[in-house]
Amino acid sequence: MDRRTTTAFAGASALLDRGIRDQLRLGWRLLRDERVSALKFTLPALLALYLVSPVDVIPDILLGPGQMDDLGIVIAGVLLIARVIPRLAPEHVVGEHVREMSMGRTAAKPGATAEEIVEARFNVRG
To answer: What is the pLDDT of residue 84?
Structure first.
């Protein structure tokens, strides 16, 4: 039986996935890059506005559920921001950041050309 699906924090394992962490790192790097459109600040501003707004999906007066909906919206907002920001950036800027992030990760034979290197992600279930 798969242990991850039976725990209370089954969804948290998805946040630990290397692909999502890399996407978050790329989004953070692009957020700080001045070559990316100024529209990149729209989603973080809307997220911050929601957090300080007195209007909530579940009122904060309900201790527990009121804060959990805010936490869920923050997590969803951060993941959405990490997916949208690379689309606002020019391709060469995104490519530059991806290359800088992957330096030292590729386990290729010395002297291998770019055509010989295969990058892949595998999920092993046991």
So the answer is: 93
Burial class (CB in 10 A: 0-12, 13-18, 19+), 26: buried
Q: Which residue has the tokens 């700080």?
A: 32
The CB-side HSE value for 79 (13 A sphere, CA atoms) comes to 13
Confidence (pTM)? 0.62
Place of tokens 């309900």: 62
Using the structure block, give the residue that is written with the tokens 């957020």: 31
In 3-state terms, what secondary structure has residue 85?
Answer: helix
Per-residue pLDDT band for 33 (boundaries 50, 70, 90) equals very high
| Overall residue count recorded for the chain in this entry | 126
CA angle 2, 15, 34 (to 5 degrees): 160
The number of C-alpha atoms within 13 Å of 29 and in the hemisphere containing its C-beta is: 16
Determine the straight-line distance between the first and last CA of the chain, rounded to whole angstroms: 9
Angle between helices 91-102 and 18-32 (to 10 degrees): 130
